[in-house]
Amino acid sequence: MISIITIAKNEEKSIERTILSVINQSAINEIEYIVIDGKSSDNTLEIIKKYKDKISKIISEPDFGIYNAMNKGIKAANGDYILFLNAGDVLFCSKTIEKILPKLNCDLVFGDILIRDENGKNSTIEYDFIDDFELFYKSLPHPCTFIKKECFLKLDLYDETKKIMSDWQWFLKYFNLKGKYKYIKTPVAIFYLGGVSTKKETKYLRKKERAEVRNIYYSKRKQVLYKIILKLTKNKTVLKFIRKILSLIGVVKIYEKCT
Known about the structure:
The chain is of the alpha/beta class. The protein is 37% helix and 20% strand. It has 10 helices and 9 strands. It has helices at residues 15-23, 44-50, 66-76, 96-100, 134-137, 149-155, 166-176, 203-217, 220-232, 236-248, and strands spanning 2-8, 31-37, 57-60, 81-84, 90-91, 108-116, 122-125, 145-148, 182-192. Strands 1, 2, 3, 4, 5, 6, 7, 8 and 9 form a 9-stranded mixed β-sheet that branches. Strand 2 (31-37), helix 2 and strand 3 form a beta-alpha-beta unit. The two termini are 22 Å apart.
């Protein structure tokens, strides 16, 4: 069973599309759906309650930030795997979970994600292999990443002192403790820009937390090298080539796939 967890606070304009994308899944009997509401002051909770018969658990209480709410969801989950699909984001299609279920044979399994901006323009994030160069500047998107619940029990929950970068920090911890992954080349979710992690007013906090996390998992020398490479080129094909060359000489650490 998969526990899908939705975090919401004052999301009356977007929460319904998220709920509908989950409860209309063809494999709904394999889903435990948990919705965590941070004591919304708008109509978010009323919209959630419209679908209470289709939602496994509804928790509505004040929280201390998104990672506090996500940790509540983890503690409440009974599924073998956990997927975070926060308010506004949606599963790619009604058969998404049905397609993914037979492929869940690794502690961490992820697919592709479609990014949709405020003008409706789409872009896609795809992966082929994961290394410490790629995770230096971007995280695995949690709306398309299935994590075994027991991994949270082994590695601990999300660091609630972080407000934006705790999921990225958790992934780096997972891989640095020799965690393996499986990549499925199929779209899992649509992520809508505009959340707290993408807002301009949180730019300073993102920068501060990113630096703190990098100082834990990257040497100063590697940070300088990676920053120079990223500054010199943004071309994805060139970056991929550089990553492969640096991995061959032992500079870039490639994370291990599940067999």
